[in-house]
Amino acid sequence: MKILMVLTSHDQLGDTGHKTGFWLEEFAAPYFVFKDAGAEITLASPKGGQPPIDPSSDGDDAQTDDTRRFKGDKDAQQQLASTITLADVTEDGFDAIFYPGGHGPLWDLAEDADSRRLIEAFAAADRPVGAVCHAPAVFRHTQGGDGKPLVSGRRVTGFTNSEEEAVDLTNVVPFLVEDMLKANGGQFERGDDWADFVLRDGKLVTGQNPASSASAAKELLALLG
Known about the structure:
- Helices cover 29% and strands 15% of the residues.
- The chain has helices at 24-36, 65-71, 74-81, 113-124, 161-166, 177-183, 213-224, and strands at 2-6, 40-45, 84-85, 96-99, 129-132, 155-156, 187-188, 198-201, 204-207.
- It has a seven-stranded mixed beta sheet with strand order 3-2-1-4-5-9-8, with helices on both faces. A two-stranded parallel ribbon has the order 6-7.
């Protein structure tokens, strides 16, 4: 079982002067779900190397069992520090692709041609595609074999407008994940703010927020069972 995880390389939170990146829990929780299931994990990012961790996800108040486990796992840290460059990756040999969120993907992965190429290839091969929280941003330009948006007519979720409003970034982000998914024809559904909520439609798995990270990974694994 080989799983490709794709992380953002973008570290600027718009023009606020603050840093962003990927959300640590949204990487760590799925990483260990996959690892504990015996999967071989490959990490990639647009620029390669160490992807930026959102500082807000690394504070004391944001720690979880999975982030603490990550901080004690030298092998995992080394793997994260040496992600391969996304342009060098093909879908060959991978069974599934998964995107952790954080605000970074809104700027780079949402517009990245290599990310789009990979997602469309996995979808065309009927292999699982997963994304959690802000990572469904990667479906902004992806298309299915019918030329329609990949999410068109499918049940999807992601970081909600109300959650974005709660963190005071509605006017900072380049677009709102919920609005974009709806505009692309997705049948957007949601749970309560900050509650674990995951949808699976065919081989497409989406999670709403950080609390949904492990559940989204488990849904992806179930498709590989």
